[in-house]
């Protein structure tokens, strides 16, 4: 069996990153000018990496699927970014942030990577303040913090309910400076469709110009993928419509391992589905759980009245409300991790206590906070989120409780990377949500922004030098090489095949069918029978897609339906790999919940003796089952134990 080498440095946990940096190979400034790096993606990870690498002297080609880096999906992150500054003096530390992240991920992440993330977290805040990010401040001028799920300290820095947007503007300003200096060449409205390997190393990409439809070739000494996650596989999710897993998936099909694909996160605080014609869902920030209390009625007749519309939430007396998270998890209450809160909401709704007309919603109530703090204080903290909720639902959350329900949000799985953030293809790096590295089986809130910026500003700029140090004698590559021609030919053949089908079903209608299979069989709860059924259903759906999809327009022109079709072809295959991974992992951990593996109280039941590993899937060819390799997780510094948020 192939041995997985994660390149984790030796030595004590707190010294690994320092020791790595002290002994890594460097590239001198004159030689950096001779090296080209492709960065695909301009979210927090991509923009920070492109800006940092250019600042250091490398030549960067940066690719953006949107019309501007400012539209990357990172702007949708609302609640905040974690760091172990301990400004509140409430007991936080680098070790505690590390431990909470490992525990929150249900002991399925690498210790060394997570400790490094916690270690560099404080530098991220300093960097962003220097860029002018308008973090909230206390009366005395210090940066303010709030609490997030899975922690008993306040370590989340925030800019009202638009933290992601403000952080992205900071990264974008750094990136724009490098574009102006000519160190970054920006390609907007370009989508990566393949990675090009020469002698086993990643040496370029094939991208499609989304305005002209032209397929183009780009060469470099190394390629960095920062293209986010793949939860739009589920059709309905909180991700932007353009978010997709195609770049990562094409890397997988070229030989990069795909790790823990079944580990996806369902966020507990989303606006419930309100119709059959929705194309996406809206996230309400987890920060709302600081002051909002989650409840359903205690009496079934009250729930039925709410579902029928004969009663409103404010009509239910306090004594008849079940604050079920506070009841079940007294130590953490409404601030339990996302996977725990999501399953608890599903359990109450499945039992018949849902509060909207579909029975698939619970209340998030701010009446206590408004009475305690005053409406203006609540407005100052969450005003834009309340406005967004009212815009969508036509309901005033200052007067009536919000309704929320879990929805697909984030993928912990992704391209496998070693300690240096390099995939199993030499020269191909993956950062941010595109890799699997830091969150294990469940991501804690406010940790995605932390990881994206940690990878881009403080980790990759070091580790990529270790790879590039012996590449300085390698001349620039011509895109006329046969490897580029072959990759482009394959893409053009794929596009021609899609355009030639001319079936009867729209891309969205097939994607919606995919979403139903994913939610019902590979969603919040999974079992062996359902997963086996899903694998067969997805095979059938793939056949239906490739024989009956209808794509209007032309393949060599502006064509949004073709873009969607190319991504959907990959989503169907990603869904199939997720089902294989979920079936193989016969345990429950974090966001992966197998109904056959739960405690008497309905909590996740891990089997550390059998599944203490990262599942690394290797592509075997079209329509062949993938093969799994294992990276064993050896915990030297923490003792894995059953997660307990009750005491």
Poorly predicted sequence stretches spanning 5 or more consecutive residues = none
The SS-based structural class is alpha+beta
Distance between the amino and carboxyl termini: 43 Å
Strand order of the largest sheet: 6-2-1-10-18
Using the coordinates shown, work out and report the CATH topology of the domain at 267-407: Flavocytochrome C3, Chain A, domain 1
Percentage of residues assigned to helices: 25-40%
CA-based shape: globular
**CATH architecture classification of the domain at 267-407:** Alpha-Beta Complex
The total count of helices amounts to: 18
How much β-strand is present in the residues?
15-25%
In round numbers, the mean pLDDT is 96
Give the number of DSSP strands. Answer: 20
Rg result: 24 Å
Q: Identify the CATH class of the domain at 267-407.
A: Alpha Beta
Considering the protein shown, what is the CATH homologous superfamily of the domain at 267-407? Succinate dehydrogenase/fumarate reductase flavoprotein, catalytic domain
Largest sheet: 5 strands, parallel
Show the helix and strand layout.
Elements: H1 16-23, H2 29-32, E1 36-40, H3 44-56, E2 59-64, E3 81-82, H4 94-104, H5 111-130, E4 146-147, E5 154-157, H6 163-180, E6 184-188, E7 190-198, E8 201-209, E9 215-219, E10 222-225, H7 246-253, E11 258-259, E12 264-270, E13 293-297, H8 300-308, E14 321-322, H9 324-328, H10 338-350, E15 362-365, H11 367-373, H12 375-393, E16 402-411, E17 414-415, E18 428-430, H13 448-468, H14 482-501, H15 507-522, H16 528-548, H17 560-584, H18 608-611, E19 613-618, E20 627-632
Parallel strand pairs: 1-2, 1-10, 2-6, 10-18
Antiparallel strand pairs: 3-5, 4-5, 7-8, 8-9, 11-17, 11-19, 12-16, 13-14, 13-15, 15-16, 19-20
């Amino acid at each position: 069996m192939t041995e997985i080498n994660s390149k984790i440095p030796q030595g004590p946990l707190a010294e690994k990153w320092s020791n790595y940096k002290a002994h890594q190979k460097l590239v001198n400034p004159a030689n950096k000018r001779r090296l080209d790096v492709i960065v695909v993606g301009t979210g927090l990870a991509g923009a920070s990496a492109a800006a940092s690498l250019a600042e250091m002297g490398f030549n960067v080609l940066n690719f953006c699927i949107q019309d501007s880096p400012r539209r990357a999906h990172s702007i949708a992150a609302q609640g905040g970014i974690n760091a172990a500054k301990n400004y509140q003096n409430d007991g936080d530390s680098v070790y505690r942030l590390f431990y909470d992240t490992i525990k929150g991920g249900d002991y399925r992440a690498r210790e060394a990577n997570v400790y490094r993330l916690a270690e560099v977290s404080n530098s991220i805040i300093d960097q962003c303040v220097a860029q002018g990010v308008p973090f909230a401040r206390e009366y005395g001028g210090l940066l303010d913090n709030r609490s997030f799920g899975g922690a008993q300290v306040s370590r989340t820095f925030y800019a009202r309910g638009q933290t992601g947007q403000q952080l992205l503007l900071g990264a974008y300003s750094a990136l724009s400076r490098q574009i102006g200096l000519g160190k970054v060449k920006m390609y907007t409205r370009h989508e990566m469709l393949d990675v090009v390997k020469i002698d086993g190393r990643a040496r370029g990409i094939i991208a499609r110009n989304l305005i002209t439809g032209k397929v183009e070739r780009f060469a470099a000494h190394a390629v960095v993928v920062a293209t986010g996650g793949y939860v739009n596989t589920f059709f309905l999710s909180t991700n932007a419509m353009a978010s997709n897993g195609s770049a990562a998936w094409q890397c997988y099909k070229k030989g990069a391992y795909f790790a823990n694909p079944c580990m996806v996160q369902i966020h507990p605080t989303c606006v419930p589905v309100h119709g059959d014609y929705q194309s996406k869902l809206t996230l309400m920030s987890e920060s709302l759980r600081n002051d909002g209390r989650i409840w359903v009625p205690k009496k079934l007749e009250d729930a039925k009245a709410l579902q029928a519309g004969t009663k409103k939430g404010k009509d239910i007396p306090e004594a008849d409300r079940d604050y079920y998270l506070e009841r079940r998890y007294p130590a953490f209450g409404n601030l339990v991790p996302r996977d725990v809160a999501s399953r608890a909401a599903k359990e109450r709704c499945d039992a018949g206590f849902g509060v909207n007309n579909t029975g698939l919603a619970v209340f998030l109530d701010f009446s206590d906070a408004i009475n305690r703090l005053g409406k203006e204080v609540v407005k100052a903290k969450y005003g834009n989120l309340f406005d967004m909720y009212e815009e969508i639902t036509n309901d005033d959350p200052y007067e009536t409780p919000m309704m929320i329900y879990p929805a697909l949000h984030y993928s912990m799985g992704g391209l496998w990377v070693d300690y240096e953030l390099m995939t199993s293809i030499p020269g191909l790096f993956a950062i941010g949500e595109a890799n699997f590295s830091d969150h294990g089986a469940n991501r804690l809130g406010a940790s995605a922004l932390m990881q994206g910026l940690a990878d881009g500003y403080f980790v990759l700029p070091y580790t990529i030098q270790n790879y590039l140090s012996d590449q300085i004698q390698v001349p620039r590559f011509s895109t006329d090489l046969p490897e580029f021609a072959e990759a482009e030919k394959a893409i053009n053949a794929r596009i021609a095949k899609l355009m030639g089908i001319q079936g009867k079903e729209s891309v969205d209608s097939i994607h919606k069918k995919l979403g139903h299979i994913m939610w019902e069989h590979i969603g919040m709860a999974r079992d062996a029978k359902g997963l086996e059924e899903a694998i067969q259903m997805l095979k059938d759906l793939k056949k239906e897609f490739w024989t009956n999809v209808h794509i209007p327009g032309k393949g060599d022109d502006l064509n949004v339906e073709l873009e969607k079709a190319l991504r959907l072809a990959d989503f169907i295959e990603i869904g199939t790999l997720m089902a294989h991974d979920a079936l193989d992992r016969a345990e429950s951990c974090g966001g992966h919940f197998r109904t056959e593996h739960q405690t008497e109280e309905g909590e996740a039941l891990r089997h550390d003796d059998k599944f203490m590993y990262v599942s690394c899937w290797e592509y075997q060819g079209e329509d062949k089952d993938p093969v799994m390799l294992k990276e064993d997780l050896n915990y030297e510094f923490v003792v894995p134990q059953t997660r307990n948020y009750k005491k």
